[in-house]
Every structure is written in structure tokens, then in C-alpha cells.
Amino acid sequence: MAEGTGREQWSSTAGFILASIGSAVGIGNIWRFPYIVGANGGGAFLIPYLISVFLFGLPLMVLEFAIGRSTKTSVLTAFRSMRDRLSVAGLAVVAIAALVLSYYLVITSWVLAYALFFTVGQPTDFAAFTGSYIPLIFFFISGVAVFLTVRSGVKEGIEMISRILIPILVVILLFLVVFALTQTGAADGIAFYLSPDYSRLSDPTVWTAAFGQAFFSLSVGMGVMLTYGSYLEGGNLFRNASVIAVADMLIAILAGLVIFPLVFTAGLDPASGVNLAFITLPAVFLEMRFGMILGALFFAMLFAAALTSAVSMFEVPVATMIDSFGYTRKRATRLIFGVIMLLGLPSALSYTALELDLFGVPFLDLSDYLFGTLGLIIAGLIISVVGGWYMDRTRICDEIGGCGWQQRAYVVLIRYCVPAILLITLIATLVQAGG
């Protein structure tokens, strides 16, 4: 507990960084990022992506950390401390985080199921799996795992699980990279993945894809980093955020060095997109020697990434109940667990024998678009505007190390550039959906 305030704290800067990496590295980093790279110019895509991460994603992450550490509280109370009328904006950010988690837990549960199936040597076809009610069991188990972790607190729960799972994730990933690069299709897979097509850089959709992926992969815009920053004492925010961003990016890039060599070795479609994790890759593992072991390792790695991200999203509404409404952690986690499971049930049911949909679209797919795509952009826009325009500039300077030219440039980025880019990305996303 923080002395004098009773507020929980990270045990060390390393614990904070590992927890933040755990939040940033999720399912999307490992299977979505490689596909986005391959579909948007290969190695050339890394140029707009790096620009997006370091000029826009990183400043927003630092802003969240600065707000959290400065106010020593979570999203709703932090916003209210700047202006009472910003409470609605704070509630919107918390609600978006909860809604994203509600369907993200469904995908997390699929990963857990596949890890178990490969571990026991009984992999299941995705259509057969989602054509039953078994996914509901794993949805509940995944929710309980997240609930128990967050209920245990910042040090004993969130930090401890990150200290265990992130190193395991990295070790498994490096092993799979070495294995994948020795396969017969490795050269073709890497060529598809990283061969630069610089002509694609003139395509605006490539740039909007890069902006979207940068914000998506860094876990900014949901109030997670703001909440995590509120448990932090000292440390250089720019340095810490840079370490988190680089680690997140390296894990995503390494994931592609696993996925595409294996897919090309098996002669399957490398552009299978969202089907990559649950249809294409399991088929690859089934055709390979030691496929059961490799499949178990891959999905264990994916579950580690999914669980640490889910935990971070769960902490946002829990911290809000503690800070804004005076709940104990145990009472807050019980309440939020019930709400999240109810919110996530329609998404869980949409990929079961019931096939729950809305207007012919599976409920999960609709949630992913409304909350995981549009919602995240809107939440990021809210945080950048609130932090950039309503947080006292002196407090920002205190948190980021003074008000020299670098800090002034940072304030310009936060106030003008980041909101503009997010607004452009939001409009482009809506236009693409309409088209």
C-alpha cells in the first residue's frame, strides 16, 4: 500500500514495466500484426507503423502514465479532478474498456481451449468446437482466472502473474522462431512477411492501418495505462514507455517469424486473416512432426498474452469502483466479474450451437467492430483531448521531466497531432465500413 494514502503500488519499476508489457502484448499482437504487415506492403509497412508507434502511440501512453501518476487515481476520478463535467468522458472510457473485455474474454477462452486440446493430444476442428456449447465452459473458466488474479491485488495478482507469464511467453516465442526458421517454407514465408513493397506507402489505407495497429497493440486509449500509472511512484516515464513499446513491437515482429514460415511450409493460405489462429495454424500443426507439442506451446503462449491483457482491462472498472465509489477490492471484483460475464454472454453464445447474431452478424463480430475498433479510437480521442487540454500543463511538465523544447514538442503532439490522427483514423474506418 502507498504510505499515507492506502493506495496499492507496484513493488518495483520492473514489475510495472512487465505488467504494462503484459497489457500491451495481447492476442492481436501475435496473430493480427503479422497478417496486417503481410497484407499492407510487407516490410514497407514497418515504416508507417514505426512512425505511428513513436510519434503518436508512445506520446499517448506517456500521457496516460502522467495522468495516473499525477492524480494517484483511476480514470473517472482523475477526469473529475480536472473538471466535474468530465465525469461523463471518464465513464465512457471505463465503459469501452469493459465492453472490449466482454468479448475479448470469449477469444481468450478459445485460446485456452485449444491449448488444452493440443496438450491432451485431441485437437478439435473450430467448426465442431463452436457448434457445441463447450465454448461457454471455457468462457467461464477464463473469466474466473481473470477475476482471481485481479482480486489478489496489484502486487500479488497483476504484477505476480506478469512476472511469471511474460518471461514464459518470450521463451516459448524464441523457441518457436528458431524451429520455424528451420522449416522448408521459411524463406518463402519471410519473403511474404517482410519483403518491402514501397509502392503501398502511397496508399492512405496502409497508413490508417498502421495508425490503428499502433494504438491497438500498445493498449492505449482504454485507461489501462492511466490506471497502471496511478500505482507508480518514481521513474522516467519516457524511458519506461519506450521499453514497453519496443518490447511490444519486437514480440509482434517475432510472432510473424513463427507464423509465416509454418504456414508456407504447409502450403496454406497466408492471408487467412482472423482464421489464422484457430483454423489455419491448427491445420499446420496437425501436419507437422511434434505438432501436438508445438500446438500446445503456441496456444499456451497465446493464452499468456491474452490473460495478461484481459487482467489489465478488468482492472480499469475495478479501480474505478474502488476509487470513485469506495468499494473494497474484493467487492469490486465480484461486481465487475458479474457485469463482464453478462455483457460477454451474447458474444460467447454467438459462436456456439445457438449462433446468436444481430442483423445476420455474429454478436462477437459486431462487438469487435463497435467496441474493439470504433470504441478504442473514440476512447483514445477522449483521453488525448482531456489530458492535453484539461490537465494543468505544469503537472504534465512535472511528470515528464520539465518544460524544455522536447517537452513542449510533446505537448504539441498530444494536443494537436494525436487527436487529429485518431480522428482521421476514425473517419477512414467508418468510410471503409460504409464502402
What does this structure look like?
- The protein is 77% helix and 1% strand.
- With 435 residues, the protein is mostly helical.
- The chain has a domain at 13-51 and 86-210 and 236-370.
- It has a two-stranded antiparallel sheet with strand order 1-2.
- It is globular.
- It starts with 12 loop residues before the first helix and ends with a helix.
- Residues 1-5 have low confidence and may be disordered.
Topology diagram in text:
Blueprint: H1 13-24, H2 27-39, H3 46-71, H4 75-82, H5 87-119, H6 126-130, H7 134-151, H8 154-181, H9 186-194, H10 204-218, H11 224-229, H12 237-265, H13 276-286, H14 291-325, H15 329-350, E1 357-358, E2 361-362, H16 363-390, H17 393-400, H18 405-434
Antiparallel strand pairs: 1-2
Helix pairs in contact: 1-8, 1-12, 1-14, 2-10, 2-12, 3-10, 3-12, 3-16, 3-17, 3-18, 4-5, 5-7, 5-14, 5-15, 5-16, 7-8, 7-14, 7-15, 8-12, 8-14, 9-12, 10-18, 12-13, 13-14, 14-15, 15-16, 16-18
Fill in the keyword field for this structure.
435 residues; mainly alpha; 77% helix; disordered N terminus
Q: What gross morphology would you assign?
A: globular
Biggest sheet descriptor: 2 strands, antiparallel
- How much strand content do the residues show? under 5%
SS-based structural class? mainly alpha
Name the helicity range: over 70%
* Low-pLDDT regions: 1-5
Number of strands: 2
Gyration radius (Cα, Å) is: 21 Å
Strand order within the widest sheet? 1-2
